[in-house]
């Protein structure tokens, strides 16, 4: 159950730099986005398999463009506008009619929540290979293997602050790579 | 890739962000564009020489009232349009008010003047200069504003581009008014209003190309 007010509170905390709130927010939104995209893609006569790509693409935008949210406004229409923009962009890119995407009220978007995640067509391992080694290792240890920054620093021989910087930069590069990949 | 892996990656090292920055950027861009337009008009075209005369001052104020109200209204809407979903929050119908006002005043002044004067009232002496100068001077503010808007993520690129063009055209017309010697209302309505509309259309056309994300 994620209502507008809960999501908005999570967003407020995440804008302050709260990682846990950011994670909860993205997790909650991924469910809503999934049901939104499955629904819309089905109506546009497309397969639901494209939905997970779009969910991830929208999550990346929500993450990288979070500074464009106006905290005085409700969150749902902002998320919905991003989701819809990415959907239309996707349908246009994959040469299909956009006439079937109806303009409708934002409330519908949060009416359902589909938490059954699938895998997208993005191959994370391949994208990882394109990162410089130190960034790749830092991300691998901390993000995928679940080590703490200190443990990752010990294992890789980097200082903890270097690991943090590498994670930070690596994430930026990786989100850019993912964004480019989903566009191609 | 699994979506929860992506979420883990995105939610590590989350930096605090400033949500007012996008609006601030656009405001700064408008000011920078305005300064560039002013410099272009002052140093390239030159300020009109009769500004010590009362009638010149009155007409200058009238022109500025028109062009500045365009700038103020349009930039008010622009800063709302730059955020995702901004187009669902506000409609910018009010931006036509300055145009409507100047057209009504122009119509009244034409109606009260003899027919033989109409051509001079509409075309003045420098209509061609006005037609070329306002869109040309608008290029720099337009470029500045669009690059600031690109840092946000507008979802209605046509209207956001149009508003950016409208602001740029208004800024340019404001600066050009310092140079322009044609003072009659029908002239202002057609050539100032028309060229600002031209800038708006150009913005609407360029918006989807320049603002895609």
UniProtKB/TrEMBL annotation, chain A:
| GO process terms (BP) | DNA-templated transcription initiation
User: Cross-referenced Pfam families, in alphabetical order?
Assistant: Sigma70_r2, Sigma70_r4_2
Domain RNA polymerase sigma-70 region: where? 41-96
Name the residues that span the membrane.
Answer: none
| Top-level taxon of the source organism | Bacteria
What molecular functions are annotated in GO for this chain? DNA binding; sigma factor activity
Where would I find the RNA polymerase sigma factor 70 region 4 type domain in this sequence? 123-173
- Signal peptide region: none
- The answer on whether this UniProt entry bears the keyword DNA-binding reads yes
Alphabetically sorted, this entry's keywords are: DNA-binding, Plasmid, Sigma factor, Transcription, Transcription regulation
Q: Which NCBIfam families match?
A: PRK12539.1, sigma70-ECF
Q: Which family does it belong to?
A: Belongs to the sigma-70 factor family. ECF subfamily.
- PANTHER family documented for this protein: ECF RNA POLYMERASE SIGMA FACTOR SIGD, RNA POLYMERASE ECF-TYPE SIGMA FACTO
Supply the name of the protein: Sigma-24 (FecI-like)
Q: Which species is the source of this protein?
A: Nitrobacter hamburgensis (strain DSM 10229 / NCIMB 13809 / X14)
Classification lineage: Bacteria, Pseudomonadati, Pseudomonadota, Alphaproteobacteria, Hyphomicrobiales
TrEMBL record, chain B:
* TM helices/strands, residue ranges: 28-47, 59-79, 91-113, 125-145, 157-178, 184-207
Superkingdom per UniProt: Bacteria
Coiled-coil zones: none
Please give the InterPro entries that the UniProt record associates with this protein.
NrsF
Q: Is this entry keyworded rRNA-binding?
A: no
Pfam families named among the record's database cross-references: NrsF
Tell me which UniProt keywords the record has, alphabetically.
Membrane, Plasmid, Transmembrane, Transmembrane helix
- Specify the protein name: DUF1109 domain-containing protein
Q: Which organism does this record belong to?
A: Nitrobacter hamburgensis (strain DSM 10229 / NCIMB 13809 / X14)
């Amino acid at each position: 159950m994620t209502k507008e007010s809960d999501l908005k509170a999570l967003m407020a905390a995440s804008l302050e730099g709260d990682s846990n709130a950011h994670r909860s927010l993205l997790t909650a939104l991924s469910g809503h986005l999934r049901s939104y995209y499955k629904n819309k893609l089905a109506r546009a006569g497309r397969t639901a398999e494209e939905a997970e790509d779009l969910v991830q693409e929208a999550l990346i935008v929500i993450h990288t463009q979070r500074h464009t949210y106006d905290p005085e406004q409700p969150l749902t229409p902002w998320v919905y506008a991003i989701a819809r923009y990415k959907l239309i962009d996707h349908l246009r890119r994959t040469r299909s009619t956009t006439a079937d995407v109806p303009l409708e009220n934002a409330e519908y978007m949060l009416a359902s929540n589909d938490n059954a995640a699938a895998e997208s067509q993005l191959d994370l391992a391949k994208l990882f290979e394109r990162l410089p080694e130190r960034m790749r290792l830092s991300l691998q240890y901390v993000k995928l293997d679940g080590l703490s920054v200190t443990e990752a620093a010990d294992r890789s021989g980097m200082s903890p602050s270097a690991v943090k910087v590498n994670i930070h930069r690596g994430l930026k590069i990786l989100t850019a790579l993912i964004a480019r990949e989903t566009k191609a | 890739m699994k979506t929860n892996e992506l979420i883990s990656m995105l939610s590590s090292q989350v930096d605090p962000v400033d949500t007012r920055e996008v609006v601030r950027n656009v405001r700064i861009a408008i000011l920078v564009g305005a300064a560039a337009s002013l410099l272009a008009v002052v140093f390239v075209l030159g300020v009109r020489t009769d500004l010590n005369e009362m009638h010149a001052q009155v007409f200058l104020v009238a022109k500025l009232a028109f062009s500045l109200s365009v700038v103020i209204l349009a930039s008010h809407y622009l800063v709302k349009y730059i955020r995702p979903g901004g187009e669902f929050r506000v409609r910018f119908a009010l931006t036509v008010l300055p145009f409507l006002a100047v057209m009504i005043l122009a119509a009244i002044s034409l109606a009260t003047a003899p027919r033989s004067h109409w051509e001079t009232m509409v075309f003045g002496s420098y209509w061609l200069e006005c037609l070329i100068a306002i869109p040309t001077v608008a290029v720099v503010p337009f470029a500045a504003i669009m690059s600031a808007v690109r840092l946000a993520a507008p979802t209605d690129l046509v209207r956001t581009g149009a508003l950016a063009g409208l602001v740029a055209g208004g800024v340019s017309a404001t600066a050009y008014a310092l140079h322009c010697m044609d003072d009659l209302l029908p002239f202002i309505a057609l050539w100032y209003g028309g060229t600002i509309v031209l800038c708006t259309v150009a913005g609407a056309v360029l918006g989807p190309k320049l603002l895609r994300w």
